[in-house]
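ok here's Inner membrane protein YgaP-like transmembrane domain-containing protein:
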Amino acid sequence: MVEQNVGGRDRLVRALLAVVLTLVAVNTLRKGKRKTSLLALVGAVGFGFNATTCFCGLNKTLGIDTTDE
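and the structure:
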């Protein structure tokens, strides 16, 4: 199992960013901007993964642990 290093406000912010970036992806796709939409979608998936699994590879690399917030 993966060690958790994302929690508290950090987890909430990542979840909100995932929602916002999903909305950006949908809106930009409707406008025909595929590259922007794809980038926003990749970001949304990344932040969504972080929020649901409570794990961030960058946090682990930098030695950051926000689970005790």
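+1. The mean pLDDT is 96.
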